[in-house]
Amino acid sequence: MVRHHRESVVFTLVVTLLAFLGAALMGLVIALSGAPDTLLLATFLAFLPVGPLLACFLWLDRYEPEPRVLLASGLAWGAFVATAAAIVLQGIGGLFTGVDGVTEIAVVAPVVEEATKGAFLVMLLWWRRAELDGMLDGIVYAGMVGIGFAFVENILYLAAAYDGTDGLGPGGSGALTMTFVIRCLVSPFAHPLFTAFFGIGVGIAVNSRTPSGRFAALATGYALAVLTHAMWNGAALGLGGNFVVVYLTLMAPLFLAFVGFAVWLRRSERTMLTRSLTDAAHRGLLPATDIAWLVDLGARRAARRFAKERGGDAGERAMEEYQQAAVELGFLHHRYLRGTPPPDFAARGQVFVERLHTVRPYISFPGQVVPTR
User: Fold this and answer.
1) For a Cys staple, 143 with which of 80, 134, 192, 341, CB 3.0–4.6 Å?
2) Are 303 and 310 in contact (CB under 8 A)?
3) Which CA distances in Å does 264 have to 267, 269, 271?
4) What are the C-alpha distances in Å from 11 to residues 7, 14, 125, 159?
5) Integer Cα distance of 192 and 143 in angstroms
């Protein structure tokens, strides 16, 4: 556990330092991108899709909610570090390669931007692997990074459209409206979708049994992120035909298929948790009668309401603690049953079991007798 704490500290320091540096650079870039009133309007419009997107990814993350600090770190990384690094790397690359604008947008930008966004996921895998249980966790963290990246990028695009500095027309409210519709209403999911493919690769890598399997999962996830990003940028440039046709026949179906896959993953977690916690109950780690109140989201909410009615805020907190520890134990035990336990499996499992045994005497589920304290 000491090693895990040390890695957590290193991860936090690296992300915090780079976020501050990236925020300073992006603050300067945004400040030079237009007049203050233009930037305020662009920021407001760019923020509108952020809330709904966050709600969607947090909805996926309900069985075992990821630490809010890490989710916020993903947003900050996408907004400041990934955007700043992409600008710097693309600028340096343009100086040495001399590629034209079309090649830069269709090829260079996807390669660089997916690398700068994906770096956060790689650092999670390297330093905070304990927080990653599978593909759904990878999707959620990738979504946070993509949302942050899209937010700042949209500010720049909206300001440029209004000022007429995007090279597509004289600017004004008409250009601003068109850019807002395309980037914030029609395709707000684009960057989260691209990076989510790498998130899936990270989720597969966590549960891979061999180094070659982990490398293949990461490489494939990155390649798919770059490919979908390149297809989108190419369509926007008209390289693959009419943008509307490409959107309706390719990107929209791909997005819907991805949504279906994410929802399926979320539902499959209930089956997985039922199986792993049942095995854990057979080993005496928790009562089997508690499992139904742990794996069904509706039952979990009912249990928390019951706990609050019987024990107030303290009772509700105790129930939340018990449910969270049990679910974390379920995910960890699932990896044990699959034959891919993390190196600190025993120590982490013992911590979860101790949390369960500490809290269990002070809670009861609906229909059960309240334990004597």
Assistant:
1) 192
2) no
3) 5, 9, 11
4) 6, 5, 11, 34
5) 5
pTM of the model: 0.89
The pLDDT assigned to 234 comes to 84
Residue 370 has pLDDT above 60, yes or no: no
Kindly report the average pLDDT of the chain as a whole number: 88
Nearest to 60 by CA among 207, 199, 182: 199
Q: Is the pLDDT of residue 21 over 60?
A: yes
pLDDT, residue 371, reads 44
Is 314's pLDDT higher than 60?
yes
Max Cα-Cα span within the chain: 76
User: What does the pLDDT look like over 190-239, one tens digit per residue?
Assistant: 999 999 999 999 999 988 888 899 999 999 999 999 999 998 888 877 76
Token readout for 322 is 């018990």
pLDDT score recorded for residue 210: 87
CA 90/CA 84 separation, integer angstroms: 10
* Tokens found for residue 12: 């936090």
Separation of alpha carbons 23 and 120, rounded Å: 16
Name the residue ranges covered by the structural domains of the chain: 2-241, 270-362
